[in-house]
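Below is a filled-in request sheet from our internal design queue. Each sheet records the structural input a requester submitted and the sequence that came back. We keep these sheets so that new team members can see what a complete request looks like end to end.

REQUESTER: design group, bay 2
PRIORITY: normal
MODE: inverse folding
CHAIN LENGTH: 228
BACKBONE (tokenized):
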């Protein structure tokens, strides 16, 4: 069963007819959202799903940046994600909580990091960057392959797992790659603030050698040509 219609849900449609798994991909996708009712709506839906389908294993997608929410300006979003995780841990009999970093994929959400940069550079708009910050970027296709492998092999059940690209990339490197991809110069100011989050890569590092996923220096470039 799949709940949701966005980018993540679209990659898990193969789970639609499974009776034992409930893919909950109907969450708030914009970390800048400040509408309390939007968060409450997601919470009500999650509680309803857990209540209606007590025998299904709940699969929830959270954010890796919960680990360093004190470094962000989106405390409401991360407080909500933490609350959702606690609800699952207390009420769901069986679950997976997969924490994701910046996900690359074709999305209507223009507030994602890459979409925001692409729009700003394309429209020759000025923006600020945190010069010392590094990001983990992962394609939705690779995130799906890793998560699918974990679920199908019943690994790390009832745990919270970071699904990340272990090779971090600086924001400045991202901008250079986007400039070359778009053929336009970015107009930005550097702010000397480091908002790098440290993720747990232990599980991903054990799995990716078996899945033929290459997180190399050309990773972002390859995903740009695939998704954008």
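RETURNED SEQUENCE:
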């Amino acid at each position: 069963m799949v709940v949701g219609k966005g980018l993540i849900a679209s990659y898990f449609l193969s789970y639609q007819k499974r009776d034992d798994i409930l893919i909950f991909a109907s969450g708030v996708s914009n970390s800048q959202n400040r509408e309390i009712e939007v968060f409450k709506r997601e919470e009500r839906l999650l509680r309803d799903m857990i209540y209606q389908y007590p025998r299904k294993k709940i699969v929830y997608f959270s954010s890796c940046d919960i680990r360093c929410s004190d470094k962000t300006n989106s405390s409401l979003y991360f407080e909500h994600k933490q609350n959702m995780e606690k609800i699952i841990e207390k009420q769901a009999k069986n679950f997976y909580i997969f924490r994701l970093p910046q996900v690359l994929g074709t999305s209507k959400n223009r507030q994602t990091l890459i979409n925001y940069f692409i729009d700003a550079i394309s429209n020759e708009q000025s923006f600020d960057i945190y010069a010392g910050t590094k990001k983990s970027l992962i394609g939705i296709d690779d995130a799906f392959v890793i998560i699918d492998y974990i679920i199908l092999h019943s690994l790390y059940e009832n745990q919270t797992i970071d699904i990340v690209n272990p090779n971090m990339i600086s924001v400045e490197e991202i901008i250079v790659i986007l400039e070359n991809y778009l053929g336009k110069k970015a107009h930005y100011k550097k702010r000397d603030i480091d908002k790098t989050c440290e993720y747990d890569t232990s599980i991903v590092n054990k799995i990716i050698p078996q899945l033929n996923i290459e997180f190399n220096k050309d990773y972002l470039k390859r995903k740009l040509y695939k998704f954008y």
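SHEET NOTES:
- The helical segments are 7-11, 36-52, 75-91, 113-122, 140-152, 171-182, 202-207, 219-227.
- Residues 2-227 form a domain with the Rossmann fold fold (CATH 3.40.50.720).
FILED BY: M.R.
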